[in-house]
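Translate sequence into structure tokens.
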Amino acid sequence: MPTTNSNRALRYRWLIFWILAIGYILVFFHRLCPAVVATDIMNDLHAGGALIGFLSSAYFYPYALMQLPTGLLSDSWGPRRTITLFLCIACAGSVLLGLSQSPAGALIGRGLVGLGVSTLFVCTLKILAEWFSVREFTGMTGLLMAMGGVGSLSAATPMALASTWLGWRLSFVAVGAVTGVLAILVWMFVRDRPSDLGWPSPAEHTAAAAQSVRLAAGVRYVLGRPAFWPLAAWFFCKYGVFTAFAGLWGGPFMMHIYGASKSRSGGILSLVALGMIIGSPLMGYCSNNLLKSRKPLLILASAVVVAMTAALAFFTANLSLTLVGAICFGLGIFASAVAVIGFTSARELFPAKIAGTCFGLLNLFPFAGGALLQPLLGSILEKQGKIGQAFTVEGFRQAFFVLFCFAVAALVSSLFVKETYGRAATDYEGPSR
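Result follows.
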């Protein structure tokens, strides 16, 4: 291939990355914003804690269920087409959520949002695996996760301000319109791989990689690798903890137990995003350049999350808001940004040829954890009753003890994760079409 085409590919891939990164900002905005406006939605729709938990987790059920189909669509139909179609669904869902006058309509809208944004992350990883080399993949995933932190930031203080100025309804309508514009940009500019434009790929492909993989064979290949399962269990437990606190119940906890205002609790929750923005590239740098390994970082991060959830569970009413802010910052780094290392390990376990299937299967687990824990904690809080409109200290204590148990399970899982640094897979050993 001419050198000029190689240079064009190296430049053009950044345009693709930044378009998809904006999409990932929206993914995290949709994911976490209920934590800031949960009280407003409960009052407006006359919903209790269990119902608002299901409303928030309605995002996660279709998101989790779509991860395997997303991987298959990404490897067969193509990530560009998949992202465009589903972003249009997210646009419609966000508008419906904002306009709905009943809990049922809001649940449908929230579910459509989860369905619509469910494909972006896996498809983006698939595109990065085609446009960047294995070593570059860690840094690019870290940068992408940092953009998720920007999305988390927009879901905290800016969402609190927007909901104050416009109301939570118009805020969701506006973000739906932005999602529709992004779908158009993806269709116009994103390409699945450099070869779609006649350019060479920096990804490590062998001659065998040119052949397509049977979908069922790819699934069996991924699930049949023993090294896949400890990583999947780690994602399920670790991200369930993160989503339950940062994505929903952290805001009501600070308002009900510590009397924080909506804007102040939103500001404290924004420290989660700051942790993600700082921690995502930092994790990649430490893994690639300092430790030159993956597993020790997973173990360290898991141990830190155990300590933070222990503080929430055993000192629920005795923490200052400053310490709660430090926990939020720590969760951003050690429960969210560390996913960079988890997905890099998965990329090194499986070749780019079946990257979509691998990421899709793996990404099912963190969102299954979120879908389980958010309503579970809501039910625990409801059972312990309320004092006026506020949940009780005992309710939050019991709810956070569940998070502590899940954090311990994540730590145990991390001990069984396979070290993959320097062992990147480039060939698919299963059957092809």
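Note: The first helix runs from residue 3 to 32.
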